[in-house]
Design brief:
The protein has about 110 residues and is an alpha+beta fold. About 50% of the residues lie in helices and about 10% in strands. The protein has helices at about 15-25, 30-35, 45-50, 55-65, 90, 95-110, and strands at about 40, 70-75, 80-85. Strand 2 and strand 3 form a beta hairpin.
Length: about 110
């Protein structure tokens, strides 16, 4: 006698899972946090503000945020030419989330990022 096991239906994704996949990566929230307070920033400015981020990690996070539509990368034709990063409308819509996380951190954790 063989036992037939019926497959279980796939569970729906948790609604927060897609967002957590993006903003849950190390340095991502901090990048958005600093870009919220500036119209645009150069790579080296972000790197200085983040303090301790590896350049390849920062580059990877910025590329991912650009692909997701959160960050805009703008090539500036100046002498010397450079690139600036800013938040898109979608990125700016994270402001309330970032402020809430900042408040939560200040209340319950270290209070170091006010």
């Amino acid at each position: 006698m063989s036992l037939q096991i019926e497959p279980r239906p796939a569970l729906p994704l948790c609604p927060i899972e897609p967002a957590a996949h993006i903003i849950g990566q190390k340095w991502t929230l901090q990048i958005v946090y600093f870009l919220l307070d500036s119209p645009s920033m150069r790579f080296c400015e972000l790197q200085d503000r983040l303090g301790g981020v590896n350049p390849s990690t920062l580059s990877s996070r910025l590329k991912m945020l650009e692909e997701e539509g959160i960050v805009r990368r703008t090539q500036i034709s100046a002498i010397p030419p450079h690139v600036e990063y800013s938040l898109t409308e979608m990125g700016r819509s994270l402001e309330e989330v970032i402020r809430a996380v900042t408040q939560w951190s200040n209340t319950w954790l270290c209070g170091c990022c006010s």
